[in-house]
């Protein structure tokens, strides 16, 4: 089998171009997977706050949410994570409590930020639970 001298570097160029595309897709998948992992952390924190609030509706729900996790999202950082707690009516049995946690996930892949027009993805988790105690007067 004879090789044409003009085609000697063709395989190397094809590999370089293919590898660039594959590595870009892989890095994007890793970045979005990490964003999903962060979403799961804030959702679990909101769930923890709603559960705590269903038993102690006038307790320190926000501090319970902020102490739920420190990785991958540092929930104690008030400049990056927003926590809001709302109750439907008076905080007594039968009412509802909603805990929302918002976090702007910073993208590490600049190409994705250029495509969506923002260097961050807003992650929001909201959990509503029924208040179990104390009894309504």
Q: Describe it for me?
A:
- The structure is a single chain.
- By secondary structure, this protein is of the alpha+beta class.
- The model has no long low-confidence stretch (mean pLDDT 87).
- It starts with 9 loop residues before the first helix and ends in a 7-residue tail after the last strand.
- The protein has helices spanning 10-55, 61-66, 110-116; strands at 81-87, 96-106, 120-130.
- The protein has one domain (7-130).
- Strands 1-2-3 form a 3-stranded antiparallel beta sheet.
Strand order of the largest sheet: 1-2-3
The succession of helices and strands, N to C, reads HHEEHE
Shape: rod-shaped
Question: Which stretches are low in confidence, meaning pLDDT under 50 for 5 or more residues running?
Answer: none
